[in-house]
Amino acid sequence: MVLVICDAAASRKQALTFLVGSLAPVLEGLLVIVVVSGVLMGALLPPSVRIGPVSPASLAICAAWFAGIWVLNRARQTPRWEVSAPGAKPGRKHRRVAHPAEKSTPITGSTARALTVFAIGCVVTLVAGVVLEVAGNDLANRAGINGVIFGATILAVASALPEISSGIAAVRLGDNELAVADIFGGNSFQVVLFLVADLIAGRPVLPTAGHLNSWLAALGIALSAVYAFGVIMRHEDCFARLGRDSLIAVAVFGLGVAGLFVIPH
Asked: Which of 91, 112, 171, 208 is least enclosed, having the fewest CB within 10 Å?
């Protein structure tokens, strides 16, 4: 859903998926679908199926993610296809390419200073994540809201704030392809953390997912497919600053959240 916000910030008349002009984000979207499918399959395994404290599904997800990253790098270095996308504005092909409109600030004036600020930001994000989880769980209990529903809505918005800020900054600099790729890349990597969760818990965590989390996993697959189709179809027109795919994504997300109140808890 962060892509909906990025779409609104990218252009008034052209959809974000039209401006991307590259099939690389489609490959990253497919990687999201592959690893999240692993989550659904891992949730169906009994807790007794394990390799030490780790679920085989968690290992498979991790292996699929590394294989997907290798494929993405291979596709960028030696592309097997050429894309003709008139009117596209993908932006920089790589982050190491300096952006002509970007100016150094006192914070990023030197490499050492930029690394220091980046490290501090990482630590603050790590600590804030723990605080958000603990406070969010307490708020959900006080309000009598199911934890999964609270996490899929209010907590999800709060934890997505860094992605929202970086995504808006990317599209304003014209890096539309990287904005989409960052969201897909972050989504696929977060699923790899189930392996870390297994090690910390000392047992497989995927079998405890339940109906609600499985529903959310399927919803994530559907939303990823919507934007992957959008990048390929390249509809240019916007309605209320949103492309067709973003409007479909909003509708699908709304139906998905409504389903959380219907399916068995």
From this structure: 112
